[in-house]
Amino acid sequence: MITLVKSNPVMDKSFVFSLMIIDYTEKLEELRKYNLARQLFKSGTSIGANIKEGQSPESRADFIHKMKIAYKEAEETEYWLNLCKEAKSYPFEPILLIKLIEIKKLLSSIITSAKNRQK
Q: Which domains does the chain carry?
């Protein structure tokens, strides 16, 4: 029996992004960049966790709130990735910023749409 599951692009992209962040932070840890790896791991994987949590909201306002938290975590993640990009002794993987920007655009659109429906 085949079960069809409706695709959710922002959940799918954030899950894949979390896996990429796990791989990247493991590389940072191998280079003994523990502090930044820890910060990046927390914020980078939190994006998807908040999006997932928002899939079972108590209200539309709760859904919007969870998406806003996910967006804030994306902003923090972007900060850490940009530090890695600019720091001479850190490796940088440009694909992470590209994927993150895609997620931020989706989240922004979702938040705007949800707010408009709330009115």
A: 9-118 (1.20.1440.60)
